[in-house]
Amino acid sequence: MAKASGLGWTTCSVDDSSGVAKAIKNDVTDLQFSTPRAVQDITGIDKSAMERLLLLADFSATLKGVFNAASGQAHDVFKTVPSTSVNRTLSLTVNGVSLNNEVLLTDYQLSRSSSGELTWSVPAVLADGTVPTWS
To answer: What pTM, to 2 d.p., does this model score?
Structure first.
């Protein structure tokens, strides 16, 4: 695989509350995601450096974007976050590689700046115990 910039994401889709994937990449202005692993310290008193074991894998993300109330767009997808408790598929694809996870969306934060911008932020956490895997 070649080196790539963060330009030209081919997919950023999120399920709405009924489980239908919606491509919202045009409304997303930036995103952050991580795939950390927990560790257990197993350092014995006979060691001069840390010893650790890898434990559970995790996934978290924060999507940010511009408010768009059109049908099938970001607000349509996220407006049910406060009132529904359903897993949603978050799909990210860039340069031919994909990362798809079942997540819980934990908030739908709207912000209106002093200059008039109306933006949103949506944090997501892994929902189903499946190890995040690039394909």
So the answer is: 0.88
